[in-house]
Each structure stands twice: as structure tokens, then as C-alpha cells.
């Protein structure tokens, strides 16, 4: 047979596998590796079948733990002769097979370890094609002949964890009760077999489109390697910070109660808080993060004496609304208690463009490190954390205060004015804004193993570079070729300053506000964002500028890069023509659009495709009265996460292209780095984090090497090496 992408069609044997399990461990909180490794985790059944056969087989609960030959013999044979194991959310099946089944059941003596290369994930296949990851949702979205057994799923959720309506006793083994019984087990077996039918139908559907290139298949395998490797964490600090945050939450809620005259009991009492704000003369629609930030900004700008109490109340709400408490809890729950590594931090193809999403600790949305350290605050203090002060790396100081020990593990005397201080009170004196201080330390929780270091590299302004590369803007690219910072260059245009002024301020502060505006202009306005949306986006990020400056910033992009708006038009026209002329290829910049049965596809320079399900072109009237073609297709809404019929346009199509090409540049570098012995532990947006004994210069050279299909992309990498992660 002819090889098509990764698969050689009709010559391989595929074994479909689906486990149902139960455990005292909370899977959502701890993640699949701690869950699979825990001694309490049991396999209730394992459904399996050879794809293409008519028989759905099953290993029952007794057989798995008694090694009953009447059931296990066929399973051993099927597993031995399968070329690939297919599963929906295959990382879970990998973890259960390699940890629970191999190590905690008698069957493990006859089975062998299965590497990631052995698995195929139907959830990943669906994601590659722009379809929902959820088995239930994707079955409905593409109208598969089989659907999830929702009643059976409800029973499975009852059976997978201990009952809640029982009295806890000292020994957990004495009080854990389960929903089990033969009738429930039989119903669970039926549910598992139905899942096999749905998964087989999804596998057949996706494979009929041949969505995987060999390169992309390797990328998925590398994703599994990274997730199973995980990253090392500073567990002692995490435990101390977690405890400190919990005690600080009680202190802040007590302050909130007193400052609101016992009207607002806790920061979570949103209705009471909203009412209190109204009594102070300010009507707000809600007390969400952006609303509170906007009101705080206005109150501080006005600087009225009578608003001090309200500012204090809102500041407490803002502190307690930070994600640091939940993230330290996630670190604590997900850290392996043997090697203190946190695994399963990435979701392959989490975005429609192929970029990774975060899960668990969610490293992708760690807050920016805005806390600084001010030296010699008091004569008898060495340091204190504040905001917007001269920068000194705060990790060492904060860790010492929170733990009460220095970097060698020796105890530090916590005394102020010759008086020994309670640990939590001492930390609060040093760091009055304790929650944002510890938020800034989240990145520093990720550390290197002893004898190794972290080599970290970030693609500088990669989307801006790729956007101009796609638009053919040689003049704009020439700036990058000279090493200019794209965001500083745009900021210079917005603020009507010289590039040198903006850049020198950025280098001096490490966090220039003007450069941040330049960055937002490049990333937002490069994709046809309107002025109203651009303004609201700035406000959502807590950035409040004069209206005249916002208008100037929005206009600056189109004036500086006129070929980009032309690319928006070309992409939209090519996509619409492809839908109207099925099978014909239409080019837009570096990419090509063509319809493949139920999908509009965009062929990227790497050979990978973007997929748009059930495309349709509709003639609509514009605001100025003309008839115009508009593109529609089905997609997952990024905000609601619902499968919806969505419109598309040039700027959005270009955004997809640019982010996808940027991602392909990154995966090319990741594959090369991994091959060179730089063990990748995490990716965060355009950043690669590795753990290694090797040197930084080689790392930087490898990462900055453009892919073979884009040798003229002017990639630039900022890199550093340390024993602790930072931004």
C-alpha cells in the first residue's frame, strides 16, 4: 500500500482500548500520573476490540485481579499482535496501563511497558481537525452513527470515587465505601462497550481524511514524552507558601469584615460586596477582576480622602482574587511524592492552530513577575517586597522569609526590634502585599534537578515576524534582520519617540510600559481588530490610556505595515473561492486553501493543515448596503467552549495562519533540541524550557535555526540558564 502521512492504510492492526477505573484520588485535582500510581486506584473494566472486527470484548473487574485465563488470554493475544493501541484521551490509558495494570494487578507479570509511540489518540486526531476533543461533543458535531451513553456515564461517575455520605474515621480503609454491586458492574460494562463503538467510528472518520503528517505524529509523541517527564518543583517552598496563603486569606477576610462594618463576610460574598460598593456611591455590574481593577484605577486617579476605605476594600478583593492560592494548591496536589516532579502540564493541540494549552498548574497563565525588592527599607531589615521599585531578583529573599531557612537549609532567626515574630506575621511585615508577592514566585517554584540547570529560550516577537513574512513585507522584515525589537519599534511609532529612547527604557527597567503597548498593538491590530474591541481589550488587561492615544495606537499599525491589511483581503478571498470551487487550490501569501470533502483546509508551509468543518459562503448585506460574500463554518467558541456555527474573516484567518506557522517553527526547534540532548520539560506560549547538563550557546543556536521550509524567517531567540525558572 502507498504510505499516506503517518499511517500505512489497511496494513496495520489497531487495538481499541478503554478503561473504567475508581480511586480515592481526585483525578481532576491530582492529574493522571498520581492517580494511576496510587495504591487505591483500581480498574473496574477494560473494554477492547480490534478495529474492523464486530466483537466488543471486555475484561471484567474480577478477571483483572484474578488473572482469569478465560478472559485474559484473548486480551494478551490482542495486545501482543496489535501494531498500535487506539484510545480516546490516550494519555490516560497509557498511565493506567503502564502504572495501574502493570504494577498493581497480577496481569502485570505477563504484560510489557507500552511507549507513547505505540498509542494513537482519537481526541488528538479530532483536535488536529478543528473538532471538539470531548467524545460526546465530537460524536454529535459530526453526526457519528454512535453516541455516548449519558445514563451510563452518570453511573460511571458515581462508581469512580468514594461515596460522600459517610462518616470519616481515623483509618481511611475503614470508611471508604463504593457504589458497586453486580448489577452496577454489568451496566458499567455495557457503557464501556458503547464507548468502543463511538471511538471506533471517530477513528474511522478522522483517518479517512489522513490528517497526520509523519512530522506531526512525531510531535504528538514528543508531547507525551514531555508530559510524562514533567518538571521538578521546589516542594518545601510550595508547602510553606500554600500554608501561608491560607492563613493570610483568613487575615484579609477579617480585615474585610471590619472595614465593611461586618457587611461583607468574605471576598467571595460578591452580592454583599457589590452592595457595599453601591453604598459608597459607585454602581458596578459585578465585582470581577477587570471591574475591580477599573474602579481602583479611577479612585486612585481621583485621590479623594473619602475613598480610602473603599480602596482598601477593593484592594483586599483584588488580592484574594488572584490565582496564586489555587496554583500553589495545584502544585501541591500534582507533585509526585517520590521525585517531586509535576507531570501532565500540556494539552497537545489545545488551540485550533496547533498551539499547546496548559492544564493542572496552568503554567501558560502564570502572572507576570511585577513584585520587586527594595533594599534597606528599614535599618534592621535587609529587604522588603514592594511594587515598581528597582529590580533585584526576589526569589532568594522571598523564599528565605517564607521558609524561615536560607538557601543552605539553615534556620534564619525571624526577629524584628529584638522581638521574635510569628512566622506568618513576620512574612506579612516584610511583604504587606503577600498574595501578589507569592504570585510572582510561581515561576520560581519550577527548578532543575541537582547537577542540572534549566536552559530556557523564547522566540522574540515571533508572531510579528511571521506576520510580515507571510505578507511579504521585506521592509518591515529588514528591521528584524538588524536585531530591532518589534514591540519597541511599534511603541516608537505610537508615542512618536525614537526607537533608541523606547528600547533603552525597556532595557533599563526590564518591563517597559511603552513596550507593552507596542506589543499589544502588534499582536491585536495585526489581525484586523477594530478600535472598539482594541479599547476594551486594553481595559480588560487593566491598561487605561487617553482616548487620543488609543486611536493613535490603533491607526499606527496599518500605517506602518500596509501590506498586512492586503494579506487579510487575500486570505479571505482565497478561502471563499476555495469553498465556491471545491477541489481547486487558491493561494494567499505563503499558504493555500482547498476544500477536502467536509472541510475547508489551509495548507501551511510546513505541509500541516488547518481544518474548518462544514464551510459555507453566504451572501450578506454590508453596513453600507452592498452585497458581499461571507465565510461560515463550525468551530469551538474559544470563550464559551461550545460548538457553534461561526463567521470568519480575513484578519482571523491570518491570525490562524500566523499562530500556526509560529507553532511549527517552535516544534521544529523542539524536535532538534530534544535530539541534541536538551530534555524539554515544558512549553509556555513561544518559550521552551529544558533541563540539561549542556551549554546555553548550543541551545540558543539550535532553537534559533529556522525550519527547512522557512529559512528566510528572521527568528530571534532570547535565552538564559539558571537553576530556577523565571520570566
Distance between the first and last residues' Cα: 50 Å
Strand composition percent: 15-25%
Please tell me what the overall shape is. Answer: globular
Helix content: 40-55%
Task: Describe what this molecule looks like in 3D.
The protein is α+β, with helices and mostly antiparallel strands and 727 residues long. The protein contains 29 helices and 26 strands. A six-stranded antiparallel beta sheet has the order 18-19-20-21-22-23, covered by helices on one side. Strand 12 and strand 13 (383-387) form a beta hairpin. Helix 8 packs across helix 10 (182-207) and helix 12 packs antiparallel against helix 15. The relative contact order is 0.09. Residues 165-170 and 373-392 have low confidence and may be disordered.
Condensed summary:
With 727 residues, the chain is of the alpha+beta class.
Descriptive key words:
alpha+beta, 5-stranded mixed beta sheet, 727 residues, single chain, 6-stranded antiparallel beta sheet
Topology:
Blueprint: E1 3-4, E2 7-8, E3 14-22, H1 27-30, H2 32-37, E4 42-50, E5 57-59, H3 61-66, H4 69-81, E6 84-87, H5 90-104, E7 119-121, H6 122-128, H7 135-141, H8 150-159, H9 172-175, H10 182-207, H11 214-229, E8 231-233, H12 235-259, H13 270-279, H14 289-302, H15 308-320, H16 324-334, E9 341-342, E10 346-347, E11 357-358, E12 371-375, E13 383-387, H17 395-403, E14 415-416, E15 419-420, H18 423-430, H19 434-439, E16 446-447, E17 453-459, H20 462-471, H21 474-481, H22 486-495, H23 499-509, H24 513-525, H25 531-540, H26 547-560, H27 563-580, E18 586-588, E19 591-596, E20 599-603, E21 609-621, E22 627-636, E23 643-648, H28 650-675, E24 679-684, E25 687-692, H29 696-703, E26 717-722
Parallel strand pairs: 3-6, 6-7
Antiparallel strand pairs: 1-2, 3-4, 4-5, 8-9, 8-16, 10-11, 12-13, 14-15, 17-25, 17-26, 18-19, 19-20, 20-21, 21-22, 22-23, 24-25
Amino acid at each position: 500500500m502507498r504510505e499516506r502521512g503517518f499511517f500505512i492504510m489497511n496494513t496495520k492492526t489497531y487495538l481499541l482500548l478503554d478503561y473504567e477505573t475508581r480511586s480515592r484520588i481526585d483525578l481532576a485535582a491530582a492529574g493522571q500520573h498520581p492517580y494511576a500510581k496510587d495504591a487505591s486506584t483500581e480498574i473496574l473494566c477494560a473494554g477492547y476490540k480490534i478495529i474492523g472486527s464486530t466483537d466488543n470484548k471486555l475484561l471484567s473487574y474480577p478477571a483483572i485481579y484474578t488473572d482469569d485465563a478465560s478472559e485474559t488470554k484473548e486480551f494478551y493475544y490482542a495486545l501482543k499482535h496489535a501494531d498500535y493501541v487506539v484510545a480516546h484521551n490516550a494519555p490516560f490509558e497509557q498511565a493506567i496501563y503502564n502504572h495501574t495494570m502493570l504494577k498493581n494487578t497480577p496481569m502485570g507479570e505477563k504484560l510489557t511497558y507500552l511507549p507513547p509511540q505505540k498509542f494513537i489518540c482519537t481526541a488528538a486526531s479530532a483536535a488536529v481537525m478543528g473538532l471538539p476533543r470531548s467524545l460526546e461533543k465530537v460524536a454529535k458535531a459530526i453526526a457519528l452513527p454512535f453516541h455516548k451513553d449519558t445514563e451510563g456515564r452518570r453511573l460511571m461517575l458515581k462508581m469512580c470515587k468514594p461515596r460522600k455520605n459517610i462518616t470519616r474515621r481515623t483509618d481511611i480503609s475503614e470508611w471508604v465505601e463504593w457504589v458497586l454491586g453486580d448489577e452496577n458492574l454489568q451496566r458499567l460494562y455495557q457503557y464501556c462497550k458503547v464507548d468502543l463503538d463511538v471511538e471506533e467510528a471517530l477513528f474511522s472518520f478522522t483517518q479517512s481524511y489522513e490528517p497526520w503528517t509523519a512530522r506531526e505524529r512525531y510531535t504528538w509523541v514528543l508531547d507525551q514524552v514531555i508530559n510524562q517527564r514533567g518538571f521538578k518543583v521546589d516542594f518545601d517552598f510550595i508547602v510553606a507558601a500554600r500554608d501561608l496563603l491560607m492563613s493570610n486569606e483568613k487575615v484579609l477576610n477579617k480585615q474585610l469584615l471590619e472595614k465593611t462594618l461586618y457587611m461583607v463576610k468574605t471576598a467571595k460574598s460578591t452580592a454583599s460586596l457589590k452592595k457595599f460598593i453601591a453604598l459608597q456611591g459607585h454602581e458596578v455590574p459585578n465585582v470581577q477582576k477587570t471591574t475591580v481593577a477599573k474602579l481602583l484605577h479611577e479612585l486612585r486617579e481621583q485621590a479623594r480622602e473619602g475613598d480610602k476605605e473603599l480602596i482598601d476594600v477593593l484592594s483586599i478583593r483584588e488580592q484574594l482574587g488572584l490565582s496564586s492560592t489555587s496554583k500553589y494548591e495545584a502544585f501541591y496536589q500534582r507533585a509526585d511524592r517520590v521525585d517531586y516532579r509535576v507531570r501532565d502540564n500540556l494539552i497537545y493541540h489545545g488551540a485550533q492552530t496547533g498551539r499547546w494549552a496548559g492544564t493542572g498548574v496552568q503554567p501558560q497563565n502564570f502572572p507576570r513577575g511585577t513584585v520587586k525588592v527594595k533594599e534597606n527599607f528599614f535599618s534592621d531589615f535587609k529587604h522588603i517586597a514592594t511594587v515598581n521599585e528597582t529590580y533585584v531578583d526576589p526569589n532568594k529573599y522571598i523564599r528565605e522569609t517564607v521558609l524561615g531557612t536560607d538557601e543552605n537549609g539553615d534556620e534564619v532567626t525571624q526577629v524584628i526590634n529584638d522581638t521574635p515574630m510569628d512566622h506568618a506575621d513576620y512574612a506579612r511585615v516584610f511583604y504587606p502585599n503577600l498574595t501578589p508577592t507569592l504570585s510572582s514566585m510561581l515561576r520560581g517554584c519550577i527548578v532543575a534537578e541537582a547537577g542540572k540547570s534549566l536552559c530556557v529560550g523564547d522566540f522574540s516577537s515571533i508572531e510579528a515576524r511571521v506576520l510580515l513574512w507571510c505578507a511579504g513585507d521585506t521592509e518591515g522584515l529588514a528591521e528584524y534582520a538588524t536585531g530591532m525589537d518589534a514591540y519597541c519599534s511599534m511603541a516608537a511609532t505610537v508615542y512618536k519617540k525614537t526607537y533608541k529612547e523606547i528600547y533603552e527604557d525597556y532595557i533599563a527597567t526590564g518591563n517597559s510600559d511603552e513596550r507593552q503597548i507596542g506589543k499589544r498593538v502588534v499582536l491585536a491590530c495585526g489581525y484586523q481588530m477594530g478600535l472598539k474591541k482594541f479599547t476594551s481589550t486594553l481595559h480588560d488587561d487593566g491598561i487605561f490610556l487617553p482616548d487620543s492615544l488609543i486611536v493613535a495606537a490603533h491607526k499606527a499599525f496599518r500605517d506602518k505595515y500596509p501590506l498586512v491589511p492586503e494579506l487579510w483581503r487575500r486570505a479571505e478571498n482565497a478561502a471563499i473561492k476555495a469553498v465556491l470551487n471545491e477541489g481547486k487550490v487558491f493561494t494567499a501569501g505563503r499558504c493555500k486553501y482547498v476544500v477536502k470533502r467536509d472541510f475547508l483546509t489551509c495548507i501551511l508551509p510546513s505541509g500541516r493543515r488547518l481544518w474548518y468543518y462544514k464551510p459555507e459562503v453566504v451572501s450578506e448585506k454590508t453596513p453600507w448596503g452592498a452585497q458581499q460574500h461571507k465565510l461560515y463554518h463550525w468551530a469551538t467558541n474559544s470563550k464559551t467552549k461550545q460548538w457553534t456555527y461561526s463567521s470568519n474573516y480575513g484578519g482571523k484567518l491570518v491570525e490562524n495562519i500566523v499562530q500556526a506557522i509560529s507553532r511549527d517553527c517552535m516544534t521544529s526547534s523542539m524536535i532538534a533540541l530534544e535530539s541534541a540532548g536538551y530534555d524539554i520539560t515544558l512549553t509556555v506560549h513561544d518559550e521552551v524550557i529544558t533541563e540539561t547538563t549542556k551549554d546555553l550557546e548550543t541551545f540558543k543556536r539550535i532553537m534559533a535555526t529556522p525550519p527547512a521550509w522557512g529559512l528566510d524567517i528572521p527568528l530571534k531567540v532570547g535565552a538564559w540558564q539558571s537553576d530556577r525558572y523565571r520570566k
